[in-house]
Amino acid sequence: MGQEESKPEPGDLIQIYRPFYQHWALYVGDGYIVHLTPNGEVLTSIFNTRAKVKKQLLKVVVGNDKWRVNNKYDRSRKPRPVKEIIRRAEEWIDRVVTYDVVTRNCEHFVTELRYGEGVSDQVSAAPGSCSLHGHSPVPGVGSKAALPLASPEPLELEGHSALCAA
């Protein structure tokens, strides 16, 4: 299951090391994470345009991959209060959101929940380490997005037109 010695606390960002990409989730307590998935599976294609927000056991999502707590933006951004982070995360569970590897990926989603601003430095990293797929469709392009996660309503849900959040 990765690092048993890592003891996540509610509100922590979880970085999961998959072959060729990194997946991000938010720890909500009792062994559970909230994260983006298409159809209950891991995001694996740059062609995914929709993702579902799911609450699942960390150990199930991680499998045999390595993971760690990585609140890497705490030095430059102030995290929201833990209760607010968890409340916001729970509002998104089972919702379908727009997904884009460069501007609205899983790291954007969880950093928006934790900090109030969606950021991902994976898309600006060297080619081969991009967000979810190992290759950025736009190498060297950084991504910083303010995502509307104050409540679930701003999301672009299946069959609805609105702002998107993932």
Automatic annotation (TrEMBL):
Pfam families: LRAT
Domain of life: Eukaryota
Domain LRAT: 13-122
One GO term (biological process): N-acylphosphatidylethanolamine metabolic process
Gene Ontology cellular-component terms listed: cytoplasm
Keyword vocabulary terms for this entry: Hydrolase, Lipid metabolism, Transferase
GO MF assignments: N-acyltransferase activity; phospholipase A1 activity; phospholipase A2 activity
PROSITE patterns: LRAT
InterPro entries in alphabetical order: H-rev107_PLA/AT, LRAT_dom
Family from the record: Belongs to the H-rev107 family.
Name of the protein this chain belongs to: LRAT domain-containing protein
Provenance organism: Catharus ustulatus (Russet-backed thrush)
Gene, per the UniProt record: LOC117000810
